[in-house]
Write a structure and sequence with these properties.
alpha/beta, Rossmann fold, single chain, 5 strands, five-stranded parallel beta sheet, 217 residues, 7 helices, binds zinc ion
């Protein structure tokens, strides 16, 4: 497999990268600056790419954030909700049509590299809040990608039915340096510990029963 990985430098896409390396896939990391308030994830992605000595592109498209308003992740005038992903308030962190846009760019890049796969790390914990992480979306996106170009592109999403807890367990087996991954949406230099993704991350480590090596504010 030759895979372009939609890579944020977060826990999920880092576990995915280690998973692919473990499967002897050829990996190209692909990160996108879409004007997210948590720019810190871009520097984490660079750090992890360097650590793994992997080819990595960061596509600078911060103006996309200006046309994808209405989300607390791209509009700093909207307060970032705190609490659990299961809460209705977390819908404020949905970036309109984000994965369709990002996966389209990754697929175009994969085709131009003569790669056969785009990999993304959507997992079961995302489904309640992010429609573009649902298995139905991934199935449909893969079909659309294969209608959009003569080249066949597989959309690899091995974690789509795994919980965050299972992802952490899998990452542990693979030796993922969790301390280098960045999850927080708040945009500081330390994890806030209160936003949806921080809460989810802390909960996953608690369920696994090991300490999260990340420093919280
Ligand atoms: Zn946070």
């Amino acid at each position: 497999m030759k895979a372009v990985v939609l890579f944020s430098g977060g826990l999920d896409s880092t576990v995915l990268t280690y998973h692919l390396i473990n499967q002897k896939a050829e990996v190209k990391l692909f990160s996108i600056d879409y004007g997210q308030r948590h720019q810190r994830e871009i520097s984490s992605s660079r750090m992890i790419a360097k650590l793994l000595n992997l080819n990595h592109s960061v596509l600078e498209l911060p103006m996309i954030g200006e046309i994808l308003g209405g989300s607390a992740l791209t509009d700093t005038t909207i307060e970032l909700p705190e609490g659990h992903y299961a809460e209705e308030s977390m819908k404020k962190t949905v970036v309109p049509n984000r994965n369709m846009i990002l996966l389209s760019l990754a697929a175009g890049h994969a085709i131009s590299l003569n790669f056969d796969t785009v990999a993304y790390a959507a997992h079961a914990g995302d489904h309640t809040i992010y429609p573009d992480c649902r298995p139905e979306f991934a199935d449909s996106m893969e079909k659309s990608l294969n209608l959009a170009d003569w080249n066949e592109i597989k959309l690899y999403r091995p974690f789509v039915n795994l919980t965050k807890e299972e992802l952490v367990r899998h990452g542990l087996e693979l030796g993922v340096p969790f301390e280098k991954t960045w999850s927080c949406y708040a945009g500081g230099n330390l994890h806030c510990g209160r936003c949806g993704t921080c809460v989810e991350r802390k909960e996953a480590f608690e369920l696994v029963g090991i300490p999260d090596p990340t420093d919280y504010n």
